[in-house]
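quick one
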Amino acid sequence: MGVVGGGQLGRMLALAGYPLGIHCLFLDRSASSPAAQVAPILTGDLEDAAQLAALAASSDVLTVDWENIAGSALAPLEKLTQVRPPRTALEVSQDRIAEKALFTKLRIPVAAHAAIDGKQQLIRAIRKLGLPGVLKTRRLGYDGKGQFLLRDLTQIDAAWAAIGGPGMIYEKFQQFSREVSIVGARSAAGRIVFYPLSANSHGGGILHYSIAPFANPGLERRARIYLKRVMNALAYVGVLAIEFFVVKGRLIANEMAPRVHNSGHWTIEGCVTSQFENHLRAICDLPLGSTRALGHTAMINFLGTMPDRERLLAVDGLAFHDYGKEPRSGRKLGHCTILKSRATERDLALSDTLKLINWT
Ligand code: AMP
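structure w/ adenosine monophosphate:
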């Protein structure tokens, strides 16, 4: 299997592949990237035509650990091997406006929004949609990067100076009670399996921790319907995630990720088959595995610095994941998952562990 991008998602895919006898080859800029520490790698720019062709030529199937590879770089590879998920899914998810247009076409609610290419347009959008709102880059935004929360009109100049330019989107701020996400896998034959809903806590736009299963049958049913619509519309193959805001008991789609997702890391220890294994199974035309939860889990990201491994490993039911990355402020360096048989025990262990990691 060829994988474009060798970050932590690729690393966890490779690790899931070993027991199945699936071997991964990565393309990444860095020979010491998280995936390169556990699997062979070609080094080069992720959109380098020659390296991509070399990767495709030595793979039965090609997938991505990073969804922002230009469609024009991927298109020639379709003649050399199978590209899964399909290129169109990546292209849609690369542009927040295209993504919201697809959701709307599929009758999936989204926040009121407008495309913005200049400051005057932003002023008009704020007049029309109101405040507060979030100005975001349409492309290449992740983990809250390229976003500015506007609470009043006096902030327009500051927002524009900070991130303004062509190719922006202004979205009405959503007063959500929760953020949840659904992860599922679809086979080429159209079979879909869904993981239980996870409830996600963000800070500064970056995921801090998730709890799952988030037991809300009504929301889960809706989320499944929406994920299925998107997967079928895109003739999707592999794992796909959609993040939602819960506003007055309704799901508002925020964005989708055409890949394994941070809010699905809990499935490694928390489900019969992890999201990583099911992505491999789906793209390799193997039967999809059970997504049944084994208990109640919490997944906590390690951001910026690694916590004390010894202290965390002393927590009963805790699994520790170090991605092998250099520490840098705000960077995702690893995560831990706590698996308990009861939700109350999980909640207690979550708050104790957050204290240990200094997430207070
Ligand atoms: P995103 O990069 O769009 O996933 O945004 C990262 C995080 O910023 C989200 O998970 C929310 O916590 C917050 N956020 C982004 N857009 C909005 C919005 N329109 N309303 C409220 N919160 C938002």
